[in-house]
Amino acid sequence: MLSILVACIAADLSYAEEVTASPRKAVLVLSGERSDLPSIPPFEKAMRETLTGPDGEYDLFVEHLDSGRFSGPTPEQAFARHLYQRYLGMRIDAVVAFTESALDFALMNRSKLFPGVPIVAASIEKNWLDGRTMPAGVQVISITYDYRSTVELMRALKPDLQQIVVVHGTAEFDLRRLDDARNAIASFSPKLDFRAVGAMPLKSLEQEVRDLPSTSAVLIASMARDVQGRSYVGKDVVARLAAVSPVPIFGTFERHLVAGAVGAAITDNAALGRLTAMEVSRALAKQPFEARQVELGPASLHVNWRALQHWNIAEDLVPPGVAIEFRPPSLWTQNRTLISVIIGALLLQAICISLLILELARRRAIERNLQESESRFRTMADTAPIMISMGGPDARLTFVNKTYLDFTGRTLEQEVAQDCGVGVHPEDLNGYMASHVAACAERRVFTAECRLRRHDGEYRWVYCSRVPRHSSDGTFLGYIGTCIDITERKAAEEQLEKEHAFLRQVIDINPNFIFAKDRMGRFTMANKAVADAYGTTVDKLIGKTDAEFDDNTHEVQHFRQVDLEVMNTLQERFIAEEKITDADGNIRWLQTVKRPIVEKDGSVNQILGASTDITRRKAAESDARRNRADLAHVARVSVMGELAGSLAHELNQPLTAILSNTQAALRFMNAKPMDVVEVRETLEDVVHESKRASQVISHMRALVKKGPLEVAPIELGIIMREVGELMRSDAIMRGVQLEFDIQPNLPMVLGDRVQLEQVMLNLLLNAFDAMAGVPHHQRLAVVQVTREGDAAVKIAVHDQGVGLSTEMRERIFKPFFTTKKDGLGLGLSICRSIIEAHGGYLRADSSRDDGTTFYFTFPVVGAVQSTLQGEAA
Amino acid sequence: MMNSSTTVYLIDDEAAVRKALARLVSAAGHGVHTFDSARAFLEHVRDDVRPACLVVDVQMPEVSGLELQRELKNENSILPIIFISGRSDIPTSVHAMKSGATDFLTKPVHDDDLLSAIERAHSYAVEARKEKVERDTVRARIDGLTAREREVMMRVVTGRLNKQIAGDLGTVEKTIKVHRARVMTKMQVHSVAALVRAVETAGVELPAAR
Fold first, then answer.
1. CA distances from residue B98 to A528, B60, B136 in whole angstroms, order as listed
2. How many CB atoms lie within 10 A of CB A577?
3. What is the pLDDT of residue A869?
4. At what angle are helices B65-74 and B90-98 packed, to 10 degrees?
5. Min distance A689 CA to chain B CA atoms (Å)
6. Within the 645-684 window of chain A, which residues sit less than 8 Å (CB to CB) from chain B?
7. A776-793 burial: b if 16+ Cβ within 10 Å, else e
8. Nearest CA among A693, A656, A663, A650 for reference residue B107
9. Which of B21, B59, B62 sits opposite A660 (nearest CB)?
10. Cross-chain residue pair B16–A689, CB shorter than 8 Å
């Protein structure tokens, strides 16, 4: 630290000695006019501030010409000599000339005092430069006096302005300003008149001003020197004139404004100072120094608030952008501290008061709430349809609500005096008292259902509940009790139970299975029939699954599968047949309906099922099937019986041939020579005929055989041929012509050939019978077999008999209906059921002239009805 | 061994039976013609010279054996018929026999039965033939009579006297006598009895005696 200080001092000393090696720039500011110009301080201050930037270090020397205060050439020369001596040996880096007179002086003495040094002249009137050329190295910063703006301001603030009186001094500067003002005002003619007033003593001025018409205004141009030679009185003049002038006074400089002028366009000297400093820096930075045109920006308009008030000029006449000065500081700004303190204190007070008020309000609100709550409680208690009571720690009643009193028919006083348990039905009293005492002892919640005597003597079922209450610190305060009249509910409960029991009886009496199961397959409901089937009781069945009672896993699996399916698809299922193995090991057949039970929320977790035991029905069905088969057999046998005669004849043919052939053969063998060939042929024929005979026998046997339906593909052509052979002899005997009209390329049909042949035989026999009364040559029976669409074949047996009436056409198919003397009457009904079992339908058509046709269709192989399979099973 | 072979017409719709029977009959030395239906037989031209017989199945489609019998009767055929039947149906057999069948056999047919029936039929045929020839002769003779002669003859055979006949016909006895003589000559009889027999033979119906 000390070493640095030493260094600085050393540096300083060396600076004084070694001028040329000094790093600090020396700037000489020459100020013209007067040293007490108000414009100088802001200018200088701004310059210093701007110059002492990071660029470098400057030494500022300010010298005042004071040419305004001293007149004559001698002062200037003396001043020059003074400067020379003073700054001898000192290098001056830049010169600043402030105002015109300084610039003149600088230029004149440049060569002597500071040759080759750049000069920056500031605050030079632009007009002053006209006609003057600056030598090299001189930078001028010009200013103008903007009277035009001032005049516009005057017109704005005084709309009725007609004349401007310019007051001026006698100095050259003053006269220049006068010219400026005149020119400015002239540009507004003919709207504005110009009048110059100056070169008179102040008193006269005052007089002049006092007499000014109201449509005029005063503009103080400049009074550097008055007529009496006094210098720089402008400020005083303004003050004096302002005191007496009936019209507003405007000025040129800030001091005029300060002194009382309404407004002025003021040069910003600080800006000027900054600008000058910048030019100086520029000059010092670069050599040679090139001058350029630099002008200070326009002056800004300022208005004096006090003056506005003085001349009653409305503040809102002030154009925007014009600064209003000298507003009296508000009370606030004047007495900041005091006011703050006062306000602070007041604020504090106010806060306290409001807090107190709030507190008060809160308390009141609480009180009110409490009261409201009390009355609400009262109302609630009294309007509640249940009996409410409150008791103290001693279990004595302290409060009962209206309903309570209405019920018992007593008053509050009476109630309070009551003992506990009064009015309870004698049968319920013990239980009630016991649990009450216990609860009281333990200070816990107590509930009871009992009968309580009402005021009219009737005992009503009530549900009582007592709850202990404690204070906030845990002290036991007593009970709050409620009693609800549940008589209706109890009655409803009883009714429900009765109905339930009845319904239970209903479902139990039903011999069908009725049950419900959940998703796990457990019974949630079952009737007695289910329980019996499983050899258990309903109670033991609930909660258990089928698997626990039915050993057959297939059956159980099937049940589960269907149950889950119903629950998951939400579809009802009808199962035509299913097996169940009951507790005794018997197999039962059931026909079941299962339905999903949908909860309110749409989920399904149970199924409801009902099953009918169809074991007997199934047995009956198979019995019936067996009976039908038996009957069919019987019919077959009887048909065979009817054909016996012709069948015997049928056998006779081959027998005859055999006999005759062999007898002939014997004779041939007796001939000499024996014709061996003849004999052999004969014997071969014998063999053939024997076979034919046995065929007939086996065919007959097949027809007579009793057996189940043998369903197989049948070729109808072959069947018809066999039928024809069987019937041929009969036909001949009866003189009937039997014809077969069989379409070629018939498809195979599916059926039992024996049964089909039986039908054909039956129909043909009937046909022959029908024609008994017909003349011989007209007896024609035709069997027609044709295709019927793609899926069936139609077989028709036609006779030329008398025909059947419409009524008869159906009656003949009824069992036990016959027109034959000793007929059973079963033939056609059996034929119909046989055809039906094959998927066809036997019917008759008849007309008087055309005879009768019995016809039916047979399904082609591939288009078979399920009944056929069922029958075969 | 047969004395005389005969022609047998065999009708049966059943081929095997027909064949077998034909064999048998031909083995016995007869000539056999087989037909599968009555119609076929009727259409066949028969020579009536040689004696023949018919063996026919009763139960046949279209035209049955009995129908054929009737048909032949209508034709005045003297062909003897032997029926063969698959069923021993009494009414049918009675009817057949009554209608003039030679025999009615049931299937299966024994050779002896058949062949003896054929023999009988043959004899009958021969006999019948003879009778026919006779009848035809007499008939021809009757046809040769005039109307008047016929009238006279008719009365004579009923036992009327010449006088009575004359009275019937409105003529004299003498004329009647002449007619009578002529009748006797034409009829080639010598006695009234013979005349009566001839007339009967011819199958002419005799008028009722008055």
1. 85, 20, 25
2. 10
3. 44
4. 10
5. 8
6. 645, 648-649, 652-661, 663-664, 667-668, 671, 678, 682
7. eeebbbbbbbeeeeebbb
8. A656
9. B21
10. yes
CB count within 10 Å of CB B128 equals 16
Q: Which residues of chain A have pLDDT under 50?
A: 14-21, 864-873
Token pair belonging to A219: 């503009």
Q: Closest to B107 (Cβ–Cβ): which among A656, A661, A668?
A: A656
User: Strand, coil or helix: what is A140?
Assistant: strand
Dihedral (CA of B145, B149, B150, B154) sign: negative
Q: CA separation (Å) from A499 to A186, A355, A537, A731?
A: 123, 70, 21, 77
Order of strands, sheet of A249-250, starting from the edge strand that comes earlier in the sequence: A193-198, A163-168, A216-222, A249-250
Helices (H) and strands (E) in chain B, counts: 9, 5
| DSSP label of A424 | B
- Please give the structure tokens belonging to residue B119: 């023999």
| Separation of alpha carbons A706 and A685, rounded Å | 34
Kindly state the tokens that stand for A682. 């004969």
- List the beta bridge partners of residue A860: A749
A 725-744: CB under 8 A from B: 728-729, 731-733, 735, 737
ipTM: 0.72
Looking at the DSSP bridge assignments, the partners of residue A578 are: A590
Helix (H, G, I), strand (E, B) or coil at A613: strand
Q: Across the interface, do B108 and A664 touch by the CB < 8 Å criterion?
A: no
Query: Is residue B49 packed enough to be buried (19+ CB in 10 Å), middle (13-18) or exposed (0-12)?
Result: exposed
CA nearest to A100, candidates A178, A41, A172, A28:
A172
Q: Which amino acid is at A489?
A: R
d(C-alpha B85, C-alpha B69), whole Å: 14
Query: If you measure CA to CA, which chain A residue comes closest to B24?
Result: A664
**Closest Cα in chain B, distance from residue A692 (Å):** 11
At residue A479, the pLDDT reads: 81
CA distance A827 to A818: 9
Interface touch B109/A682, C-beta < 8 Å: no
pLDDT, one tens digit per residue, over A552-604 is 888 899 999 999 999 999 989 998 888 888 888 888 899 999 999 999 998 89
Q: State the pairing for strand pair A851-859/A792-799.
A: antiparallel
Question: Per the structure block, which two tokens stand in for A778?
Answer: 């007209």
- For residue A747, the model assigns a pLDDT of 86
The count of residues in chain B is 210
Closest listed residue to residue A632, CA positions, set A765, A454, A752: A752
Bridge partners (DSSP) listed for residue A167: A197, A220
pLDDT of A529: 92
| pLDDT reported for residue A562 | 92
